[in-house]
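User: Please fill in residues for this 162-position structure.
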């Protein structure tokens, strides 16, 4: 079995739908970072795909996290989540403008991709683990009901099995 720098994390079912959402965000982040080293065609394609993913999934995911998890976090985590969501929203707005450029700025693509990846990694490695450890069984059960309803309401979600 291969060793991982960061082995897979056991995720409580209450947080699993939000965690599954992160896969798409990580794919977008990697495309942006790789495209920063590519030509103008690769950069335009990556920006277009990101803006589409933002409109289709990522912005909604941010709102869902804030609504479902905001009251369950300590103040420092809540502040960081909101600050990073605001920063990423601003970068997404810049990406929407950049989408019209003939040659999108490579450093802007890299900045957006790295910021998105770092944010998702923080949530997965730190925030979600703290919530799993801190929330009691009753709160996790309620969160699980809410997140399951949320996931079922989204036609884009296809539950991946391990």
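Assistant: Residues filled in for all 162 positions:
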């Amino acid at each position: 079995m291969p060793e991982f720098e960061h082995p897979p994390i056991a995720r409580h079912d209450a947080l699993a739908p939000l965690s599954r959402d992160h896969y798409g965000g990580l794919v977008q982040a990697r495309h942006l970072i790789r495209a920063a080293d590519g030509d103008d065609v690769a950069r335009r394609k990556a920006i277009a795909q990101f803006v589409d993913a933002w409109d289709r999934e990522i912005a909604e995911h941010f709102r869902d996290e804030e609504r479902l998890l905001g009251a369950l976090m300590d103040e420092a985590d809540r502040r960081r989540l909101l600050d990073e969501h605001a920063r990423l929203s601003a970068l997404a707005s810049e990406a929407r403008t950049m989408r019209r450029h003939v040659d999108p700025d490579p450093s802007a693509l890299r900045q957006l991709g790295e910021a998105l990846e770092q944010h998702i990694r923080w949530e997965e490695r730190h925030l979600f683990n703290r919530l799993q450890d801190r929330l009691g069984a009753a709160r996790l059960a309620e969160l699980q009901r809410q997140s399951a309803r949320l996931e079922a309401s989204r036609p884009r979600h296809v539950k991946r099995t391990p």
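For context: The radius of gyration is 17 Å.
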